Amino acid sequence: MILQLPLLVSQVVASGAIIPRPALNGFYRWLSTHTPMSQGVYSTFNALYGGANSGYTSALWWLISLSLLAVILIGWLGYRSTKTNPLSRLVPFTAGN
Predict the structure, then answer these.
(1) How many whole angstroms separate alpha carbon 78 and alpha carbon 95?
(2) pLDDT by residue (tens digit) across 19-45?
(3) pLDDT of 67 above 90
(4) How far apart are CA 8 and CA 38, in angstroms?
(5) How far is CA 15 from CA 20, 42, 58, 70, in A?
(6) Which residues in 5-96 belong to E strands, given as ranges?
(7) 7 pLDDT exceeds 70?
(8) Helices and strands: H and E segment counts in the chain
(9) Quick one: how far is CA 12 from the chain centroid?
(10) Residue 31: its H or E element
(11) What is the model's pTM?
């Protein structure tokens, strides 16, 4: 915990999310090229503000399309059966009781 908090704070400052990268001094510019948070912030800025077609946006579209495909496939598998389930034969439905 003692070590994680200063590293987290330095990554937040160096990432460019709070202060733009051109306004940072040399140490934080160097740190921003080596920390994972700065790359995540850069990808998010590209996706939000219409930057170049980065890998982040294409991966996001792939994730959305595969999720929709999975939902459609699961829905089709769940509703394709027209036979009654074996459990419904054991427990009959009695309406009005």
Answers:
(1) 25
(2) 888 888 888 888 888 888 887 887 778
(3) yes
(4) 11
(5) 8, 8, 22, 35
(6) none
(7) yes
(8) 5, 0
(9) 19
(10) helix 26-34
(11) 0.44
Is the distance from CB of 11 to CB of 35 less than 8 angstroms?
yes
Query: What is the Cα–Cα distance from 86 to 18, expressed in whole angstroms?
Result: 60
Q: Please classify residue 31 by burial: count the beta carbons closer than 10 Å to its beta carbon, then call 0-12 exposed, 13-18 middle and 19+ buried.
A: middle
Note the pLDDT tens digit of each residue in 37-66: 887 887 778 777 776 666 666 777 888 999
Question: What are the Cα distances from residue 51, in Å, to 12, 35, 43, 47, 57?
Answer: 21, 21, 9, 6, 10
Residue 22 has which token pair? 């051109």
